[in-house]
Specification:
By secondary structure, this protein is mostly beta strands. 12% of the residues lie in helices and 36% in strands. The chain is built from seven helices and 28 strands. The strands form nine sheets. Strands 17, 18, 20, 21 and 22 form a five-stranded antiparallel beta sheet that branches. Strands 4-3-6-7 form a four-stranded antiparallel beta sheet, with no helix packed on it. Strands 10, 12, 13 and 14 form a four-stranded antiparallel beta sheet that branches. The longest helix is centred in the first third of the chain and has 19 residues. 31% of the residues are buried.
């Protein structure tokens, strides 16, 4: 019995040794796939866990993915180390809005094993978010607009700017600016606008999802107005000509087509009366024009004018009197007092205006002996006293209708009466004999 028991123990020991020296067949690894997380428009995070190497070293592991089910390592994949255990895999280069299939894999000498398949969809690119800025620095043909791309929508903003037009909700099919790329604020200068017109403006931003627009804003360009200008001083006055200046101080948004001087013998002359364009007839700034063929001894009213697309405007009115010329070509200043024109200096002709000479009388005796027209110079000194006092005429000369230049006459008592009353004297006082009035003479006194 004891011998039999020993034999049984020996058999058991031999069986155990045989078990220890037997071989196990190698197999592919066992791997599971991690649920996808961190999904963006072009990336995601997955991974896996190699729970059994199949009896052979795991030489490669990762995830493979594609747009068709059951992706393999022949397509897109990651390589995330070796051996067993958990690993993480970053998926890149995805197409936004696309569905993907993912499987973890593990490779050993036997082959490649795949984990369970999971699915996810890359985030779709949304339209960019853009706001429209208020329009500023508005002029006749320009303005400054702009906007702000506050979010790219997950895509790349390839263009941004503003679109504008005369109708509501303008888009990039019409006039628009291009003011850079990416997120952030931008400024959009607008030019070539029409003056006095209402415009609609919207900012825009374009990414892979398309073009998005900001809220609409409106503005109106400045309307062109008639020019601003002033009338200059009158100079170089003769009996038949004068030079008048002007200054266009602002074109008010419209190019100056013409500028010059208009004149007439009635107040507020226009270009419907006499006018002459300046030699340099456009633009702003100073200019002058020469008036010709005027009538001697006449009061003229002049105004500078300028034209642009809005119309014609006029400067302030200026008056002047042409000089008076007698038959001997002596020139005289004239002055308007009340409604009448008066010579501002004494007559100095020795010839009637019909070319008849006036006899001179140089001495007291010769003067007393005259029985017809005559004249003399004060103290018989023509060189000094003619410019100061003119000639002295006797009654026969002074009452001759041909003494004064054509169209003029020696002042009558009625003329002096009208003059005195125009200076403020009452008719009752003006009709008195002897000294009368208060400051009428002072009013006529020259200030130069």
């Amino acid at each position: 019995m004891k011998k039999a028991l020993n034999f049984l123990v020996l058999i058991v020991l031999l069986a155990g040794v045989a078990t220890l020296n037997s071989c196990k067949k190698e197999e592919i690894p066992v791997v599971t796939t991690t649920v996808v997380s961190g999904v963006t428009t072009t990336t995601a995070v997955s991974g896996g866990n190699v729970t059994d190497d199949g009896g052979a070293d795991v030489t490669a592991r990762g995830v493979c993915w594609g747009t068709a089910a059951n992706p393999t390592v022949s397509g897109s994949k990651t390589t995330d180390g070796t051996g067993t255990g958990s690993f993480s895999s970053n998926l890149t280069g995805l197409t936004p809005g696309t569905k993907y299939y993912v499987r973890a894999y593990a490779t050993n000498s036997v082959g490649t094993a795949y984990g369970n398949e999971v699915e996810f969809t890359a985030t779709a690119i949304a339209g960019a978010t853009v706001t429209t800025a208020a329009v500023t620095v508005i002029s006749y043909t320009t303005a400054t607009a702009g906007g702000n791309v506050t979010a790219t929508g997950g895509g790349t903003v390839t263009a941004k700017g503003v679109c504008y037009g005369l109708t509501a909700n303008p888009d990039i099919s019409g006039p628009h600016t291009t003011d850079g790329t990416g997120a952030g604020e931008f400024t959009s200068p607008l030019s070539g606008l029409t003056s006095g017109v209402k415009y609609f403006v919207r900012a825009y931003a374009t990414n892979d999802a398309g073009t998005q627009y900001g809220t609409q804003v409106e503005f109106t360009t400045l309307a062109v107005a008639e020019p601003d200008l002033s009338t200059g001083a009158v100079s170089l006055i003769t009996d038949v000509s004068a030079t008048v200046g002007g200054n266009v101080t602002a074109d008010n948004g419209g190019a100056i087509d013409e500028r010059g001087i208009c004149w007439g013998t009635a107040a507020n002359p226009t270009v419907e009366d006499n006018f002459i364009a300046a030699d340099l007839g456009d633009g702003t700034g100073d200019f002058s024009a020469n008036l010709a063929n005027l009538v001697m001894g006449t009061t003229y009213y002049v105004r500078a004018y300028a034209e642009n697309s809005a119309g014609t405007s006029y400067g302030d009115q200026v008056t002047f009197n042409t000089l008076l010329r007698d038959v001997e070509d002596n020139l005289y200043e004239v002055v308007r007092i009340g409604s009448a024109l008066w010579m501002a200096e004494n007559l100095a002709t020795a010839t009637f205006n019909d070319d008849t000479p006036i006899p001179p009388a140089a001495t007291d005796a010769a003067w007393a002996a005259l029985t017809g027209p005559g004249y003399c110079w004060y103290e018989d000194n023509e060189d000094i006293n003619k410019p100061l006092y003119g000639a002295l005429y006797n009654w026969f000369a002074a009452s001759n209708a041909e003494l004064c230049p054509d169209g003029w006459h020696v002042a009558s008592d009625d003329d002096f009466l009208a003059l005195e009353m125009s200076l403020g004297m009452s008719q009752a006082v003006a009709e008195q004999e002897g000294w009368r009035g208060e400051d009428e003479g002072t009013q006529m006194k020259s200030t130069t």
